[in-house]
Write a structure and sequence with these properties.
Elements (H helix, E strand, L loop, with lengths): L6 H14 L4 H9 L5 H9 L18 H13 L8 H13 L2 H13 L6 E3 L15 E5 L2 E12 L6 E7 L13 E7 H4 L4 E5 L8 E12 L3 E2 L5 H37 L1 E2 L2 E2 L4 H29 L5 H25 L11 H9 L8 H12 L7
Parallel strand pairs: 1-4
Antiparallel strand pairs: 2-3, 3-7, 4-5, 5-8, 6-7, 9-10
Helix pairs in contact: 1-4, 4-8, 5-8, 8-9, 8-10, 9-10, 10-11, 10-12
Bound molecules: flavin-adenine dinucleotide.
Length: 387
């Protein structure tokens, strides 16, 4: 018996599915065509309390764990939607909850829970350093009761649909730290104050309908109490949040995979060519069956990651492996689905090409597949560091 098919999780699945039924494929297709943002969907998800699932009850949320949160995002994608529009709030909130001061938590968390404020953005990636995060060049220099931020970020998502952003910047130059992962700090940036006052946002047109931006910091001043946790420990805090992020993205990929498999099987049963359903041909059946097996296997690792995270264990290995397996499996499922649909897979009205583009992202962001392999090689298999 699957221990994760319990009453509580099934109720979450049913609730999210009922909400998603109000936002059918046509809704997402139109948003994609118009390169718009699903405002009404995000509002509905917020109003029903799904986005504050992991905020503790004392701060106005539901006090649920990563397992429950992962089911919410999985179901959005399994219903044909795109959780990439909202998932930031789930893992960014975790960073604030785990490392923020009491004052920060009691000010921000109730506002996030009620939907008054949105914390959808996290600024880590930089154009000149890419995945080599410890080399980031954005600096935060303390001057009196302020930090002054200078530098540049790239691919920072949902900035135009968020009030707050978690920002990683160097507070001690790389040359002055003993370990390269030290000397970076995280800040809670109030985007409403920052944009136009030292922060410039430039949208990046991209292959998915994903609102993402280049950010330019030119002497942006942040109040000293924007610092989250201790100065210099930001990289560790970010990594902690990234494990939650990886498990959540794995769940989204599993949702995508299930959508592709269901869609493929339905089409293969119905489409008749050469006088029989195409699904009667093993050449059509097998890639769908294989995708199903791989999604189910990835799902097991996703549950392991959630269980470890929720019980306070180090979920680094399982979260990375879950993200790797699920992103790969959803991509295989996407390929099988497109192939099963033949030419119709390319027609926007079937939604396959849209979901195909959306799920492809997860091989690259929020962490590329190669970097997960290198993590496993170095940290689990004790192979020499490659960088
Ligand atoms: C749509 C979108 C949204 C994003 N949203 C955010 C966001 O909100 N916040 C944020 O901070 N970032 C965000 N990102 C950035 C994303 O996390 C990075 O693109 C990703 O981590 C890869 O970094 P990079 O693009 O700089 O690639 P690079 O680091 O330049 O790497 C390029 C390729 O080389 C490979 N590679 C590099 N070094 C090695 C090595 N040593 N061994 C093997 N392979 C290697 C990588 O795996 C990758 O495939 C987003 C990206 C996209 C596309």
């Amino acid at each position: 018996m699957n221990p994760y098919e319990n009453e509580g999780l099934n109720a979450i699945r049913d609730g999210v599915r009922a909400l998603c039924a109000q936002f059918p494929a046509e809704y997402w297709r139109k948003i994609d065509e118009q390169k718009g943002f699903p405002e009404t969907f995000v509002k509905a998800l917020t109003d029903e309390g799904w986005l504050s699932a992991m905020i503790p009850e004392e701060y106005g949320g539901s006090g649920l764990g990563l397992a429950e949160a992962s089911v919410i995002l999985e179901e959005v994608n399994a219903c044909g939607g795109n959780s990439g529009t909202v998932h930031g709030q789930m893992y960014n909130m975790f960073t604030l909850l785990r490392h923020g001061s009491d004052a920060q938590k009691s000010y921000y968390l109730p506002k996030l829970a009620s939907g008054e404020l949105r914390l959808q953005s996290m600024g880590v990636t930089e154009p000149s350093t890419g995945t080599d995060t410890t080399k980031i060049k954005t600096t935060a220099v303390k001057r009196g009761d302020k930090y002054v931020i200078n530098g540049q970020k790239v691919w920072i998502s949902r900035v135009q649909h968020s009030d707050l952003m978690i920002l990683l910047a160097r507070t001690t130059p790389l040359a002055e730290v003993t370990k390269k992962s030290e000397g970076m700090s995280i800040f809670l940036v109030d985007l409403r104050d920052a944009i136009g006052n030292g922060l410039t946002v430039q949208p990046i047109a991209n292959m998915v309908n994903h609102e993402t931006n280049e950010l330019f910091f030119d002497n942006l001043e942040l109040p000293a109490d924007s610092l989250i946790g201790e100065e210099g420990k930001g990289f560790r805090y970010i990594l902690d949040g990234l494990n939650a992020e990886r498990a959540l993205i794995a769940a989204e990929c599993i949702g995508d995979g299930r959508w592709f498999i269901e869609k493929s099987a339905a089409y293969a049963r119905d489409r008749v060519v050469f006088g029989r359903p195409i699904g009667q041909n093993q050449g059509v059946q097998f890639p769908i069956a294989e995708a199903h097996i791989e999604i189910e296997a990835a799902d097991l690792m996703r549950w392991r990651a959630c269980e470890e995270y929720d019980s306070g264990k180090n979920a680094g290995a399982s979260a990375n492996m879950a993200k790797y397996l699920a992103a790969k499996a959803s991509w295989e499922a996407a390929n099988a689905c497109l192939q099963t649909h033949g030419g119709f897979g390319f027609a926007c009205e079937y939604d396959v090409e849209r979901k195909f583009r959306e799920t492809r992202l997860y091989q690259v962001a929020p962490i590329s597949t190669n970097l997960i392999l290198s993590y496993v090689a170095e940290h689990l298999l004790d192979l020499p560091r490659s960088f």
